[in-house]
Write a structure and sequence with these properties.
With 262 residues, this protein is α/β, with parallel strands linked by helices. The chain contains nine helices and eight strands. The longest helix is centred in the last third of the chain and has 16 residues. Homotetramer.
Length: 262
């Protein structure tokens, strides 16, 4: 976060009291006009740079108001965290960059979550779309249950499928476990393009707990990337060309995930 500098008002010299100055003049009358002029000059308050001249030792109203505003100026308020973005189709450039299943995801500081919701039972309805976050507020995984599926009816069955650019972080995993434990008729399947910090013991323990809570964890295969492109991306009817090492990277992550969940 950029440093801020405090705004400082222009310096001012306080006005001298006229009564006291008058007494000094009465006792020590100058001998010539030159000394009077010097003494009168000293009696005037010092003018700060950029300040309007004063009349009869009094600051003009405009200058006083300006100084008061500067003196009590407050620092600008910090902007709130980026809001969760929700939509139907992702920009094609963002998809190709954010979902690329590289091992080192430098510059990919967002989580994209494409979702399908199939509700079975009375008044059932399906939902489809995507969420995007900036990792500054609620993450997409948590925002899904706040914005897309905030209500839960135990008389219904919910089949929820996610295609995410990266697997959940430990904090989101803990919340997902809590939700799945409370919502007995909800089934969640997560297809991830990449594994988030899979080397960390905390992440590995969280993924195991998530699987134990009933969540199906999968890595995105080449065919999953093509499906996501056709279903969730504003592709302008263009065919999706997989990057060269897509299959190799999928196999790498699939092996890591299998080792964690065994």
């Amino acid at each position: 976060m950029a440093d801020r500098k405090e705004a400082k008002g222009a310096g001012r010299v306080p006005l001298r009291k006229k009564e006291k100055k008058a007494e000094v003049k009465a006792e020590n009358v100058p001998e010539n006009e030159k000394e009077k002029e010097k003494e009168n000059t000293e009696d005037q308050p010092v003018q700060a740079e950029g300040e309007k001249p004063q009349e009869n030792g009094v600051t003009p109203d405009g200058a006083a108001a300006s100084e008061k505003n500067e003196e009590f100026m407050v620092e600008p308020m910090e902007l709130p965290p980026f809001e969760i973005i929700e939509g139907e189709r992702i920009n094609s450039f963002f998809f190709k960059f954010q979902f690329k299943n590289v091992e080192y995801s430098s510059g990919r500081n967002k989580t994209f979550l494409c979702f399908l919701v199939d509700t079975q039972g009375r008044n059932s309805e399906g939902k489809r779309g995507y969420l995007e976050d900036e990792h500054t507020g609620a993450h997409s995984e948590e925002a899904f249950f706040q914005q897309v599926l905030p209500e839960y009816d135990p008389a219904l069955r919910y089949m929820v499928t996610w295609y995410v650019s990266s697997s959940p972080c430990p904090a989101c995993i803990a919340k997902l476990v809590e939700i799945l434990t409370a919502r007995k008729t909800l089934r969640l399947t997560i297809f991830s393009a990449r594994l988030f910090m899979w080397e960390e013991p905390e992440v590995q323990a969280g993924l195991k707990a998530l699987a134990a809570a009933g969540c199906k964890l999968r890595m995105m295969k080449p065919t999953d990337f093509s499906y996501t492109w056709d279903t969730f991306v504003d592709n302008e009817d263009q065919k999706f060309d997989l990057w060269e090492d897509c299959k190799e990277n999928y196999e790498y992550y699939q092996e890591k995930l299998a080792d964690i969940l065994q």
